[in-house]
Amino acid sequence: MIYRIEIVPRGDVDPVGAGTLNEIRTLGIASVSAVTAGRVFLLEGDDRKLSADDVRRVAAELLADPVVETFGVGDTQLADRGVLVEVHYKPGVMDPVALSTAAAIADMGVAADSVRTARIYRLAGKPSDAEVQTIMARVLANDCIEQAVVGSLGAAPPPHAPEHAFRKVTVPIRDLDDAGLKKLSERGHLFLNVTEMRGIQDYFRRVGREPSDIELETLAQTWSEHCVHKTLKSRVECDFGFSISDSGLEEKDAKGEAGAIQSTIENLKSKIPPTVRRVYENLLADTIAAATKKLNKPWCISVFKDNAGVIEFDDKHAVCFKVETHNHPSAIEPYGGAATGIGGCIRDPMGTGLGAKPVANTDIFCFAPPDWPVARLPKGVLHPRRVMRGVVSGVRDYGNRMGIPTVNGALFFDPRYLGNPLVFCGNVGLMDRDKCFKNAASGDAIVVVGGRTGRDGIHGATFSSGEMTHTHEDEFSHAVQIGNAITEKKMTDVLQEARRRGLYSAITDCGAGGLSSAVGEMGETLGAQVNLETVPLKYAGLSYTEIWISEAQERMVLAVPQKDVAALLALFASEDVEATVIGTFADDRILRLSYKGEPVGELEMEFLHDGLPKYTRKAEWRPAPPSALRTPHSALSHTDALKRLLGHWNIASKEWVVRQYDHEVQGGSVIKPLVGAVNDGPGDGAVFQPVLGSPRGVALACGMSPRLGDIDPYQMALHAIDECVRNLVCVGADIDRIAILDNFCWGNCAKPDRLGSLVLAAQACYDGALAYGTPFISGKDSLNNEFVAADGSVITIPPTLLISGIAIVADVTRCASMDAKADDNVLLLVGATQDSLTGSHYELVTSDRDPHALQAPPLAAGAPPVVDLKQGPRIARAVAGAIAAGGVRAAHDCSEGGLAVAIAEMCLAGGLGFAGELDAVNADAAAALFGESPSRYLLEVEPAKLDALRKSLGDVPSAVLGKFAAKPTLTLTHRGAKVIEADVAALKQAWQQPLAW
Amino acid sequence: MSKVNALVLRAAGVNCNEETAYALTLGGADCVEQLHVNRLIEKPDALDRFNFLVVPGGFSYGDDISAGRILAKQLELHLGDALRRFVSAGKLVLGICNGFQVLVKAGLLPGLPPMPAGPTAGGNGQATAGANALLTITANDRGRFEDRWVHLTPASRRNVFLPAGGPPIYLPIAHGEGKLAVRDAAVLTALQENDLVAVRYASADGSAAGGVFPLNPNGAVDDIAGLCDPTGQIFGLMPHPERHSIPTQHPQWTRRGLKPADGLAVFTNGVQFLRRS
Q1: What CATH number is attached to the domain comprising B202?
Q2: Pair A337, A329: CB distance under 8 Å
């Protein structure tokens, strides 16, 4: 029999209900006057073993909190007034609370066979049926994983999945023509193109048989863009409208009008840097990886090979860093998508070398503006505010439960992220210096540990490699996973002990592609035999192929020497973590899969890993013609422009996000994401001590500049690197110990213009990394970030390159923060200002452009500010030296919104005012105040130490701007005219208000 | 002088164990061990080796059902005798954040005698869990997790760890369910009269927070941030003393310089109490 327990708040204190009501109000629905939110538990058990008294005892002593809640067993207690809505998980969706509850009930000696949870809401007032439907769809439930019903389902029976009836599936491929191959790929959601399908066809013709379904799936997973990055590794032929010879640029089309061509070429010459090549044999190897190779830093331990890049920390320790994206799942189910994004990223350091202890998270998100008009939302798209709330909650709940501080992040907004939000999750791990490499051997047992395998996440790797469409929400809901952080936390804890005791020889995470990728990678040079029926399942009914490609979360794969298997299994059991032997590594480089003794798949590892056809892709890029940007608000006073800038989504305070993350767990926090007199200023980067008791620290920061991506992808990438370096330098990083990561999120790079901008950015990564001496140690790309709306129109994201940086800090007591410290202290600007507003946020806040237009914004004439690859690194080094010497009271990087915003931020963080003049800044007033020139730093120094500071900076450009003042007013003059005059409190209010949710 | 042997309890989802162990070492404990609750359940006598038990912060069992509930149930079901023996031997128990929630929900705090039930409202079921039915720790008024620093005043003369009369201290909170709520006014009066309110949220100068956010970050009744039992040897609090036991953990150390860390006192006072006894 099934018992229904309902728990509702006692009295009127109901934070969940209040929050829900708030969300309903933001939809513009006023007919709901109050919301009551309750919890439902459904317990099923054998009548002879589970009595009503047992259930009442479980409810009273375990489930309900008597001080603040009441419970009922049976029908709902809420039926008296208002509309009831009950929300249940769809069958097969992870329900972490149910799992914990079942274990706790068993611990009480009560025999329940199954536990499920649900939520119930009572909407008081008189909402119409249509309003209730809207509330259900937009606030209470996500149709992708949940089912919402009006009323109460009562004690609905749980789904009981039938056992899988084994039937080996063979897929004829040898006789198909191209059309047939294409159809097979599409029908099976393989996301492989005809060339790839032909390669597979040739293989099976050679081995003389038809493939099984599991073999095709294994190839599709392993060859997916997500797993092998075939675009970045392809041969790229560039055509930028001209050809490049040794002597320079030549006309491509001599028949055109000479003058026009000449001016076009001149224009291109100024835009295409001389380092860009016509042909890249392997784009990734020739640019990003080449820079690392050339820099050849002795402190780089493992780069690009493993799940994360590894650098030296001290004599005994190393740190590794990986940043991943989880864009497509987050678009469909923001909470689960983002939670599993961070969960998956954490497993990368855990699966690097012999495994790391996760010590810090970073999170960077790109959304459409949260004030998006509901009426203008395309079909199949969740509202950006809901996406943002869901993503932040997902990262919060997973990261906080894992006990990993989320110390750094950024938010960036553009309308074109509407159908395709970007969710970047990063994790830093701490490892032993002598455990940075794997050494799996033939004969080692293949052991899967952690969570069980279910139907969740099937086809995640291939789905994330394709474009989003308005129907994806329905077709691919099974690609979305819900995480269970505690399963991962338990696994992390016990893995540390297993590592200490040396019980395994290799480890990797089970991410995209599931077991197929994990075992396939680990056994690449060995071969493997896997018995699929031994994999522990969440529920019955999975086919052998589903078991093999499921991307169920919280699983890792270990190679365990046979002599250690018993000890390892006992260790995992002692902390309630499942560990199961599922096969053996072989010695013949063949992957063999069987189900209940029956062979179901056999592939040569060589074909699996090296059989992917090599591509040649075309890249082209034309600079967008400058359009006359209308800036009707240029009559706006500079003070008002400053307030608008501070309130722009990209610049406004992110405190609402930061406070929801535990950024201090593990106890190593040194420079927090919120700094200043009242802990609410915008820190540039974070510093933490991964080894308590050691003076050394790790600094984390990031840089991105998608605004420039539309104008000049090469400069965009350099700006991102420069910003990342600036942020690290400002908190006290050692300039000689900075490593960086790349994350490319681009549109469909099969389109030559998209690939062209990617090529320019990749070349800039090479040039920038060499100039700054910052090797790339890891990276990841996510292509095909396009959304196809129901009417066929395509929304392409702006080309977005995230540069994440990790640096070593020799002595954390020398770190700096950005908040102004004391009145009378002098503010010094280091670095040169270019007279340009192109690509700036000032352009955005002063133009009359529709802020919700889905096209690239119009551009002002003129070039954006450029990074000087000779001067930029010199400035960074000079500033880092000055901070390390201890003569700097505050350091702040000058980025979005320019100098005026940076000074305002220092004031509002420090609770001080400032009076100064910008005459030394060689630009017009607007460009001096709001231009976004790179390589600029603001340093606060005590007057007595100013001379020493300037001397230590050597010949890099610097200018004294003025002094901080006790009176909280910001005044700036430019060439004799007062250009800014504002109360710091008013500026702070403008800055805090937009995201004070 | 007695040796101080501290035990930091681990369980699925506990995540502040390492830094809590580090703070105990800084506080002078002679020996600090981290042990999984499963080991204690297998062999409850193992507890007897220790004289300072810390239930650290985290999300034990995911805080599924409610914060600390499942670990509390485990302690109640399997370790009740061992814990009673531990406490009656004059040993110390400290619960931080999730550990505080566990101690309250397991009935170890505040140790008030049973009180007659007040009027109840609604529902066909009345939860009956014994001592813990007097008060609970529940969702923050603002309905979400927050990490922020708070000022606290020590308020109980009984509390061994932070006796009343000491200066206000500055510690971070990081929780979504930190609001102390009582069944009725009589319970609050009993807490006050028995001097069991150990720390209160306050302003920087030590004046009362008066329930005002963000000084009182979660809406706790009477600004209560922590409780002790009548012996003063069991202490639980929502803020994290281990996160302010190193000077560079202070959020404003770059402004005010490196000064002694406030939270360390909780550990040193505990260690010194055991040394004296």
Answers
A1: 3.40.50.880
A2: yes
